[in-house]
Amino acid sequence: MATSLAYGGAVASSRRLRALITNDDGIDSPGLWALAAGARDAGFDVVVAAPHVDASGVGGSVLSVREDGRTRLQRRELPELAGVPAFAVEGHPAFIVHAAGRGWLDPEPDVVLSGINIGANLGHSVLHSGTIGAALAASLHGWRALAVSLGTPAVTPERPHWESALQVLPDVLDLLLASPDATVLSLNVPDVPVAELRELREARLARFGSVQVRVDHIAGDDADDDADVLHSHAAELATPPEPGTDTALVAAGHPTITELQSVSDRPGLLDGATAARRAS
C-alpha cells in the first residue's frame, strides 16, 4: 500500500547547503524560476544553470554545443531572484550537472533540484526526460537530487499552479535531506489549486506514462520534397492506469513521490547460464 504524508514540514537542515537548480524547459521557464525561489526560501545557497533553449526529451544526454572544447554560457538575471547567480548554458541538463561536478562550480553543489517541469514525468517513460536525466546525473556524483514536475494538460495553461508544487516542496526536501547520499526522488504534483491538493503519496512507476506516443510512417508525396516522414503524436492510454501507480494517483489529485535508481549492474549472468547447462 502506498504511504502518505501531510504537509507542513520545515527545511531547517538545508541551511548553508548549496543547491544547483536546473531543468529541461530552458532558462526562460517560469517553473525554473519558481523552483529556484522555493529553494532559496528554504534556506539553500542557490545557483541556477539551465539550457539556453528548450531541451525536453533529451534524457541523460551530455551533449553540448562545443567549439574547440568550449561550451558557451551567458550570465542571466532572473525575475524576482536578485542576487542569485544564473547561467544559460548551450548544453543539455545532464551535461550541466556533470560540468558542475567536473570543476565548473566551486564550491560544487550539495543537492541538485531539477524542474519545475511543464508536464508530469510518470511511469517508466521517465527514461526520456531531461528533467529526470539531470537528477540521475547528480547521483553519479554522489549528490542527492530531486526532480519536480507539474502535471499540466497537453496544452499548457496560461497560469500553471506552480504554487501547488511549492506547497509540497518543503516536506519533500526534508525527505531528501534525510536520505542517503546519491538518493534521487521524483515529485509529480497535479496542476490544481493548493486547496484541491490531496495528501502526498509514495507511488511506484506505471508501465508507461499518462500519455503514449504513436509514430506513423507517411510516404512522401510533396512535389518539392518526396522524403518519407515519421509523424509523432500523443495518444491517450486505452486502459485505465493501474491502481497505486504514479499515473493513477496524480490523476486522482495526489502529489506523488518515487525514489528512482540510476543504471546498475546485475551480477550472476554466467553463473545462471552455467547452472542451466548443468540442469539440462
TrEMBL record:
Q: What is this protein called?
A: 5'-nucleotidase
Concerning Gene3D superfamilies, the annotation shows: Survival protein SurE-like phosphatase/nucleotidase
Which is one Pfam family of this protein?
Answer: SurE
State the family it belongs to: Belongs to the SurE nucleotidase family.
One GO molecular function term? 5'-nucleotidase activity
Instruction: State which Enzyme Commission number(s) the record gives.
Output: 3.1.3.5
Q: Which reaction does it catalyse?
A: a ribonucleoside 5'-phosphate + H2O = a ribonucleoside + phosphate
Which keywords does UniProt give here?
Hydrolase, Metal-binding
Q: Where is the Survival protein SurE-like phosphatase/nucleotidase domain?
A: 20-206
> Per the record, which residues fall in region Disordered?
260-280
Superkingdom of source: Bacteria
Bilayer-crossing residues are: none
Q: Which organism is it from?
A: Pseudonocardia kunmingensis
Q: Does the keyword Transmembrane helix apply?
A: no
